[in-house]
Amino acid sequence: MSLNKNMLWTAFFFLSALMSPNLFALLPVPKAQIPNLTAGAYIVGAVVITGIYLKTSKIHTLSEKRTSWGKVIGIGLLGILLSWFLQTIIMLVEIQLFNQPVGSQNTADVTDLIKKAPFFMIAVTIAGPIMEEYVFRFSLINFLNQKLPTILSALISSLIFAVLHGDGHYLLYGGLGLFFYYLYQKTGSILTSIITHAGMNTLVVIVRLLFIK
Predict the structure, then answer these.
(1) What are phi and psi of 147, to 5 degrees?
(2) Among 28, 138, 146, 193, which has the minimal tally of Cβ within 10 Å of its Cβ?
(3) Given pLDDT bands bounded at 50, 70 and 90, which one contains residue 10?
(4) Is the CB of residue 107 less than 8 Å from the CB of residue 84?
(5) What is the dihedral of CA 7, 38, 206, 203, to 10 degrees?
(6) 171-192 b/e with 16+ CB inside 10 Å = b?
(7) Higher-confidence residue: 65 or 132?
């Protein structure tokens, strides 16, 4: 599969999963079941997008680089701690320079949803990060790289990534997007950024569930 087709189909299935709560709200299903159905849609989306990635040619992409599995996993795990540190630093900058509120409303809303529908945690900690890394780091960056310098592609991808989170923390999510890109290009394996992204989301959710009321 070409990068152009990959971008088209990956975006389609990602946006379908993202908009699935609105679709389920129109169906005759109990409102309390919408988070669980959404989690199911995210899981299906992650599986389908992974399949699309596996069928896509990696020629002339950042994924051409070969790195050992040990290094990919090791850097991915280290990235979890580094992303947590980076997130803390950026949030302090946002508070001081832009008077942003402490914490992310998006994260708070997601955590409240998990408390009501625990199955939704799979969407936030695993399926969501998988889809986002394939969409924003592999598909979008490599698609844009056909015409643009890599760093500009990464900046555009990170900006869109930040905007789609929808709570005004553009510097935070944009910075994390660039960090995930760095991990991906460092190893040439999208699995590196998936491990870091999923691990960071899991850590954030666990901390909020256990320590923040």
Answers:
(1) -125, -20
(2) 28
(3) very high
(4) no
(5) -10
(6) bbbbbbbbbbbebbbbbbbbbb
(7) 132
For residues 196 and 83, the answer to whether their CB atoms sit within 8 Å is yes
Q: Distance (Å, rounded) from C-alpha 119 to C-alpha 107?
A: 16
Distance CA 149, CA 197 (A): 24
Task: Look at the block and give the residue holding tokens 């959710």.
Answer: 205
Do the Cβ atoms of 80 and 199 come closer than 8 Å? yes
Handedness of CA 133, 137, 142, 148 (dihedral sign): positive
* pLDDT of the residue at 94: 85
* Chain segment 102-145, per-residue pLDDT in tens: 666 667 677 777 877 788 889 889 999 999 999 999 999 999 99
Q: How many alpha carbons fall within 13 Å on the CB side of residue 177?
A: 29
